[in-house]
Amino acid sequence: MRNVVILGATGSIGRSARKVAKDIPSRMRVVGMSAHSNAEELAEAAREFPEARTALSSGPDGGERLVELATMPEADLVLIAIVGTGGLRPALAAIEAGKDIAVASKEILVMAGEVVMEAARRRGVRVLPVDSEHNAIFQCLDGRDTSSVRRLILTCSGGPFRQTPTAELETVTPKMALRHPTWNMGKKITIDSATLFNKALEMIEARWLFDIGIERVDVIVHPQSIVHSMVEFVDGSVLAQLGHSDMRLPIQYAVTWPERVPNSLPPLDLAALGRLEFEAPRRVDFPALDLAVKAGTLGGACPAVLNAANEVAVESFLAGRIGFTGIWRIVAQVLDQIPHTPHPDLSAILAADAEARQLARALVD
Ligand code: NDP
Ligand code: MG
């Protein structure tokens, strides 16, 4: 039995995590939950798990409340499912308090992968991946380190504009971009899936989680989202993990790891699916992947800069202030203009994040 705190219990991942807890009650007990603005749904969640402590993180001491939940003595595992950078402080607090963390929020490892992984090593706690691609790789690696790995291969649905002609990308509206073909997720990550910045963030996330150079993290488009990612070993053998596109599975595996337990998810019917397709990503038309390679190769605070600029650009796109292709342009310009800080500590990372946001806003204006 794992006692779990869910930070971001009212989001898409948080809701799936609550379903998992109901589905496997002998393995997962919810002891704490947070929300940000949705007090009504948090109250509803509190009725589902009456023993759990709850906190609303909005307001001036919001961060403090998240830290309190993340360090609750009775918790063994903290699931971080907050959108944006608000999960970083509670994640570090949980690690310092000796808790394992299950990471859905990719911002944490993108911004501060070196700091977070180093803290986890020092405290001897686990960083368990929830993002479906990294959870798949974690399952394929099955405890092996990456010395026997040639490449990690992240699969990517390609998003709603996989086949959209280059010239039409300019005219994509928020409404069009919010319609994802295979996954049902929060707004920010849905836009990121359309620009491929989601995959860009995941390349950097993989680099830190599995301690591997970004040049060995590859991406392949797989429109059905059934193969969640693959590992190619040095002997040429490739292992893949398959499953429905339902986040309950990776959440459950992070909670029950290293064991597997039955649940109520329907079995995968490959014959009914018929076919699984793969194609190369359109790297030139969707420059997010190459921007990730650039930021990941430069290292330091560059991934944090990329993440921050992208957050501002996505907000501006949703607000109708820039066009779809403007998202890539803003991120590329911010990445070019912010000076590079090697091996930054947390305060240098936060400073680079703030500077990138400010510059991105100025460019939007
Ligand atoms: P949602 O937007 O659906 O949910 C976000 C959650 O975070 C809500 O509980 C929200 O509370 C809370 N929240 C929002 N802003 C803040 C803040 N400033 N401080 C504290 N809490 C806040 O997002 P998702 O569930 O889709 O995604 C969460 C994270 O997981 C993201 O980093 C995303 O990239 C990652 N992820 C998501 C996947 C998915 O399938 N959805 C897949 C893989 C990764 P409230 O509702 O009360 O405002
Ligand atoms: Mg993912």
Note down, in words, how this protein is organized:
By secondary structure, the protein is an alpha/beta fold. It folds into 3 domains: 149 residues, Rossmann fold (3-Layer(aba) Sandwich), CATH 3.40.50; 126 residues, no CATH class; 67 residues, Orthogonal Bundle (Rna Polymerase Sigma Factor, Chain: A). The protein is 46% helix and 15% strand. The strands form 2 sheets. Strands 3-2-1-4-5-6 form a 6-stranded parallel β-sheet, sandwiched between helices. The radius of gyration is 19 Å and the shape is globular. The site of NADPH dihydro-nicotinamide-adenine-dinucleotide phosphate has 27 residues, from helix 1.
Short structural summary:
By secondary structure, the protein is of the alpha/beta class. 46% of the residues lie in helices and 15% in strands. It folds into 3 domains: 2-130 and 247-266, Rossmann fold (3-Layer(aba) Sandwich), CATH 3.40.50; 135-244 and 270-285, no CATH class; 299-365, RNA polymerase sigma factor, region 2, helix turn helix motif (Rna Polymerase Sigma Factor, Chain: A).
**Which structural class should the secondary elements be placed in?**
alpha/beta
| Strand residues, percent | 5-15%
Query: How many angstroms does the end-to-end distance come to?
Result: 51 Å
What binds here, in terms of ligands, is: NADPH dihydro-nicotinamide-adenine-dinucleotide phosphate, magnesium ion
Element order: H for helix, E for strand: EHEHEHEHEHEHEHHHEEEHHHHHH
Ranges with pLDDT <50 over ≥5 residues?
A: none
CATH third-tier fold name of the largest domain: Rossmann fold
- Rounded radius of gyration (Å): 19 Å
